[in-house]
Amino acid sequence: MQDQPFPYVSLELLEALQEHFPDRSPDLRWSDREVWFKAGQCAVVRFLKGKFDEQNENILKRPL
User: Fold this and answer.
1) Is residue 16, in this structure, part of any structural domain at all?
2) Which residues contact 48 (CB under 8 A, 6 or more apart)?
3) What is the pLDDT of residue 3?
4) For tag attachment on the chain, is the N or C end more exposed, with fewer CB atoms within 10 Å?
């Protein structure tokens, strides 16, 4: 799967995901499963933020 380029991550998408799935400390009232689930959400947003940063490092890699 490394041979295929990753789809472009837009700033609008990234901002919307960060708003819907904020990276925050767990609440003591959350169950273990809820903590794991929210941690997974944040991990995906962090991954996409990394791809966004990577894609915007070099303007020649940006789609038209």
Assistant:
1) yes
2) 9, 13, 14, 17
3) 74
4) C
